[in-house]
């Protein structure tokens, strides 16, 4: 949730780009599209698909990149936003990095834990 109204100049996050264990990264690292999206307004608070700003990192190699978003997103205090990462590489199963950025402002509640355990699908059966 945005704590202030203003413009986002850049975002900083952690990527696993050079792990010694398999499964964290491979090949070229892919093409990582980073988007800041509004919330969908439902009880599940998913990204809406409406991008406020984005940036693509081609073959990510930095562990802690700081990137700009274009256009620079304008946020409103009290609104919920989502930073969405998508690998747009033509061969995402062989060219990828891991995004190590899950943070929850409040501790997990049973419904949220259920969503995470089921691979971010609907918590309803």
Q: Could you explain how this protein is built, in words?
A:
The structure is a single chain. With 125 residues, this protein is mainly beta. It has one domain. Helix content is 6%, strand content 32%. The chain has one helix at 110-117, and strands at residues 6-7, 11-12, 15-16, 31-39, 47-58, 66-67, 74-75, 81-87, 98-99. The strands form 4 sheets. Strands 5-4-8 form a 3-stranded antiparallel β-sheet, with no helix packed on it. It has a two-stranded antiparallel sheet with strand order 1-7. A two-stranded antiparallel sheet has the order 2-6. Strand 4 (31-39) and strand 5 (47-58) form a beta hairpin. The longest helix is centred in the C-terminal third of the chain and has 8 residues, at 110-117.
Topology:
Elements (H helix, E strand, L loop, with lengths): L5 E2 L3 E2 L2 E2 L14 E9 L7 E12 L7 E2 L6 E2 L5 E7 L10 E2 L10 H8 L8
Antiparallel strand pairs: 1-7, 2-6, 3-9, 4-5, 4-8
Summarize the entry for a quick read.
The protein has 125 residues and is mostly beta strands.
């Amino acid at each position: 949730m945005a704590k202030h109204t203003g413009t986002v100049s850049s975002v900083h996050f952690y990527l696993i780009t050079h792990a010694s264990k398999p499964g964290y990264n491979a090949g070229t690292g892919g093409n990582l599209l980073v988007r800041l999206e509004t919330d969908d307004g439902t009880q599940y608070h998913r990204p809406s698909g409406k991008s406020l700003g984005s940036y693509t990192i081609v073959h990510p190699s930095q562990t802690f990149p700081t990137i700009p978003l274009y256009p620079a997103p304008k946020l409103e205090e009290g609104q919920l936003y989502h930073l969405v990462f998508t690998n747009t590489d033509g061969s995402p199963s062989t060219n990828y990095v891991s995004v190590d950025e899950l943070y929850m402002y409040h501790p997990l509640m049973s419904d949220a834990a259920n969503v995470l355990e089921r691979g971010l699908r609907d918590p309803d059966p």
